[in-house]
Amino acid sequence: MDTPLGPFAVIADGPVVLAAGFTTDEVALRRNVHASLQGASAPDPGPIRAAVEAYFAGEVEAIDAIEVRQTGSPFRSHAWKVLREVRDPITYTRFAELSGNPRAIRAAASACATNSAALFVPCHRILRTDGSLGGYLWGLDVKRELLQHEQK
Question: What percent of the chain has pLDDT over 70?
């Protein structure tokens, strides 16, 4: 779908997001899927599209209603759940603390780097300790624009 930040694609199992990102490259998006596609049903784009449109219309919380399924190590799985509760930008250090292991800063950063459900699992809200953006799979310009959009 089109967004103010360019194309946004979703791989879903019915109404459940498995992967999402600011791309038209389905191969790249499929590479990021952390859940089995075996037996997956056709996506139900209605609620997902509505949530993305509402998000960009200013209802930032609209993405919270969309279910996401990712599988990973116990730490990553928990960290992805924690990311869904992060409302304002925080540091990787704070994210590690919220994820249950204050010393696991690199693991927390890795959870962000391997997050397959961009936007719905808002890893773009995690910043370096010095306040700089750090990385973002879909580009720092997209990360910057998402943060600016959410500050409005």
Answer: 93
